[in-house]
Amino acid sequence: MKKIDEFVHSLYKDVSGDKQELDDLKQEMRSHLIEAVEELKFEGKTEEEAIRMAIENFGGKKQIVSGLSEFFRVQKKFTNVVLSFALLFFVAAIVSLLFSLANVKEYKKESKEAEASHLERYAIMYDVLDVIDTPGGEITPKDKNELQNVFKRYQDKINMIAVFPVKGSEEWLKDNKEVSMAPMNHFPIDYKKSSIIVDRDGIVRDKEHIVPSDYDLGTVIHANGRWIVQYEYKTSYEDTIEKYHQISYYSPNTSSFYYVPITFFSIFMILGAIWLFMRKQNRQLQSVIH
Asked: The domain containing residue 138 runs over which residues?
């Protein structure tokens, strides 16, 4: 079958690529041709006739090259489409990464502001308790002045500060033990029971007409051994309080901001690998055609 070997070799002599792959392709083509020759010989043809007819039936070199040329044209076009989509996803990955970085920066800024508001609730509360934590157990005129100063210090954030005696509120404290542990957001106590209330106008005399905040996070309460302190946030400051609450309980992981760019980069890499593989195949086909 020397002619068969020469024919197969002539088709692949200029093809570059993996030697094992080329040997497998040549062996497969040789097997098909030999099988066709044996069938033709069985029908009564001589070996020379059978080889010639098998090669002609196989299509001949020109027809094979013509078919490869058409396949090469289609595959090259598809390769370019793959490259276009790969570049598109690369650009999308870069753009989404820039957006993600900006969002992470804004998220960290909001987190920092929200954390500051949380720490400030302790500062407000303990500033008030420091004023009223006197040996006599009564709020003196000096304490009242100092309470007004505390309010002025935080007046851009709170509406009022109220102080209640623990005496007479034992049952309430028993049912709300958490307020003794740390400053807590809580539904407000009736202001009529307070010993003193301070707002922007000073000491509040008319307790009957105070309307408590209806925002569920708008009031903070804390109790020590003798006093219960309660203050309300200004409506304009509630957004900051809400952000802290959302960040504390529903905060996304920072890595989640990068899911989209990571996905786009992954698709780009997959398409890039496909493009490189097809580009290699195209070069092999082109070497066969030319």
From this structure: 111-237
